[in-house]
Amino acid sequence: CQCHRIININIFLTKYCKHAVQCLLLDNVMESRLLGLVEHIKEHALFLFTHRRMAITGNDVTLQEIIPISYDFSSFVCPCTILGADTRVRLTFFNEKMECKLPFGSQTRLFLSEVNRAWCGKKAPKFDWLTKYQKNSKGLGSVPPIATSVGKITKTGNGQGTVKGEGRNELVRSSRHTVSNKAQMLTMPQFGLRDNLIKCELLKNEEAYTYIQNFNFFLGTYNVNGQTPRESLRPWLSATPQPPDFYCVGFQELDLSKEAFFFNDTPKEQEWMKAVSEGLHPDAKYALVKLVRLVGIMLLFYVKKEHAKHISEVEAEAVGTGIMGRMGNKGAVAVRFQFHNSDLCVVNSHLAAHIEEYERRNQDYKDICSRMLFRQQDPTLPPLTILKHSIVLWLGDLNYRISELDVDYVKDLILKKDFETLHNYDQLKRQMDEETVFVGFMEGEIDFQPTYKYDTGSDYWDTSEKCRVPAWCDRILWRGKNIVQQYYQSHMTLRTSDHKPVSSLLEIGIKVVNEEAYKKTFEDIVRSLDKLENECIPSVSVSQSEFHFKDVKFMQHRSETLKLHNDGQVPCQFEFIQKLDEPAYCKPWLTANPAKGFLAQASIDIDLEVFVNRSTAPELNSGQQQLEDILVLHLERGKDYFISITGSYLPSCFGSSIHTLCQMREPIQEMPLEMIHRLVTSKRSQALDIPKEIWMMVDHLYRNASKQEDLFQQPGLRSEFEVIRDCLDTGTLDSLPGSNHSVAESLLLFLDALPDPVVPFSVYQECLDCSSNIGQCKKIISLLPQCHKNVFNYLTAFLRELLKNSAYNRLDVNILATIFSALLVRPSTKQDQMEKRKTREFFQHFLIQDSH
């Protein structure tokens, strides 16, 4: 019967599929496919599947084509011109060709070698075993006909297959599912649980098939202060007698212009990249693996060409930690990659400036570690953080200073080369000793003089009016095993900048695979898994099924731990899955970390994290949503578990509308929730001209920060923002606490969280259309709802007052227009660069008037 026929096919595929990879089919459009190599009685064929996002069960895949590997079959690997690029493969069978792209890495190399081995030295195949896959009915489980080396199967009117003359049939392109049980898919590599089981066991037994081989990594960091290269970089980059295997070269302050800051565009990228390529060690040939840049922070990653084939899974990311946690004048860029069997991450960062801001630098470091996320090759897997890598190399202008010593005493210690005494007053050393930042990282002994600050073009300490205390701002650290530092030094002969470049040579032990040992370990694992899968089903226990988060506040991170214990006899795979008719597995204010994973014979802690931001606060403030959700924890080949999440949210002025706040004379948290919910939809006239919260922040800045240097450009402290938020929401203090920078950032966050901006979404397009006409711009503002118009006029008047003190606060029209136009005149969807320029032009009209 049909059912027995399907089960027989499932058993057949389960037993005979040797390898599988994910690929992109290069047709008119690129489409994802699964490509499997199937063997039966020394005959081979490629099975091409279409698939859904997660190919776990048979209902997730469709058998699209079957390509017998016969004398009419050939494969050609297109030469790779870019290091780290995917592998393009051209398959030829009969007179037709198919081109696909396979992911760069060892899995693809193994798959192609097996395909090549299957093609070589075989007797004339018959492929009789493939006839069971031809379409012989319209019922469930039908699959496409197969091209063979002796003919092709086509369809007759009654649905039966007949063999015609030599050639290749257009195999079925429509979407029909091959019915299958879970066991079939779970036993095919790349199809979910089984692949993860094998990966986990391979990782546990890694020492059985790898050995350590040392490679030299050159790490360099240079804050170039916006200068163009005026001298050769060879004294810095080629300081070693032997050429290093890798170069990781980081720059900061590549370009200090406003264009670079606001639009992330600079010609200096190419200028410094050219200078680096000319400065690399002349005794070796290098390939550029990756360039990544965020405004003035740039990282270049080079490798000796002979090592290129062993690099895979290259990903690059950037995180801005400037004002509001977005601006890229401070932050980090990073590259992660796999080299042989070791995973590495290289980070180049520029942390907050000024001697007193060490807490802000600590916060920047923590933000970079939590927000820098690298996608994995398998899009269904959660992203990797920096600290998930076995080796982390961190360089950059970390900006930690020497504190508690006056400038003359510091210079005297430097003159005596008493770097040990001086280092005891180094902020980074103290913070690392207290385990506040860079926990688990190492830094070599510093026996060179501080690299900041010099008069540009000289070796003289800063002679400006500020006369800054010399400091080791530029640092190189590492984290991981089998790492030995060969040297750590500065390069005094380079005088382009007010910093000196720093370099370090690290000898790093890399895990290299012994292919024979790997094959044996792999086969042993597969045999043991076969036995386990036949005997056991997975089972877990959860520590608790209900969680309550009390008194959650705006932008306050809250977390509870769900402990998942594997109490079965077999490793298992878990995932939080979507509920019916919902777009994600959880509400947007909730995340589970990790949301999916693999659990061996042990336990795992899952962090259930609640965070209310500008996207989710409006509906929680208005009572349209509550902190309630149910998570469905799915166990592959097992049952589902239900986790209840509840909580209470404290309403905040952040995320409330201008209209609602103008009706509140009292702080929002002193009002009953029912009253707040009524005011959201109320049509009554406003009680206040502008929200009192905006008045409190602007009045504070007007009185205390009109001459504050770098106002609205230097971030505040998160701890101070939380106190300011509570003060605005509860009215407990008459004046705002915290630094001027924290109050300024709080104002920006408030404007960013408005559900409808100061210039409402409804008139956004009109603002773009008339951005060059000052008369039309003023007319749009005059027609705004009264409370929105009042806020706009109040804010622009305040900004014009700030511009009168530009000699002190270093603000100008361009800076303020760029920052505030993005908050006051914004669309409900993402802006392009042209729209950003037009909104800036629109807003400038209101700053230029009366500014002189």
Question: In words, what does this structure look like?
Answer:
The protein is an alpha+beta fold. It has 4 domains: about 1-185, PH-domain like, CATH 2.30.29.110; about 205-515, Deoxyribonuclease I, Chain A (4-Layer Sandwich), CATH 3.60.10.10; about 540-650, Immunoglobulin-like; about 755-850, Orthogonal Bundle (Phosphatidylinositol 3-kinase, Chain A). The chain is about 30% helix and about 25% strand. The protein is built from 24 helices and 29 strands. The strands form 6 sheets. It has a 7-stranded antiparallel sheet with strand order 4-3-2-1-7-6-5. A 6-stranded mixed sheet has the order 12-13-11-10-20-19. Helix 16 (about 690-705) packs antiparallel against helix 18 and helix 23 crosses helix 24 (about 835-850). The N and C termini lie far apart (about 90 Å). The model is unreliable at about 1-10, about 55 and about 135-190 (pLDDT under 50). Belongs to the inositol 1,4,5-trisphosphate 5-phosphatase type II family. Keywords: Cytoplasmic vesicle, Endosome, Hydrolase, Lipid metabolism, Membrane. It is found in: Cytoplasmic vesicle, Phagosome membrane; Early endosome membrane.
**CATH top-level class of the largest domain:** Alpha Beta
Described by the principal axes of the CA atoms, the overall outline is: globular
Low-confidence stretches: 1-12, 53-57, 135-191
Helix content: 25-40%
CATH topology of the largest domain: Deoxyribonuclease I, Chain A
By CATH, the architecture of the largest domain is named 4-Layer Sandwich
Number of helical runs?
24
Sum this structure up briefly.
With 852 residues, the protein is an alpha+beta fold. The protein is 29% helix and 26% strand.
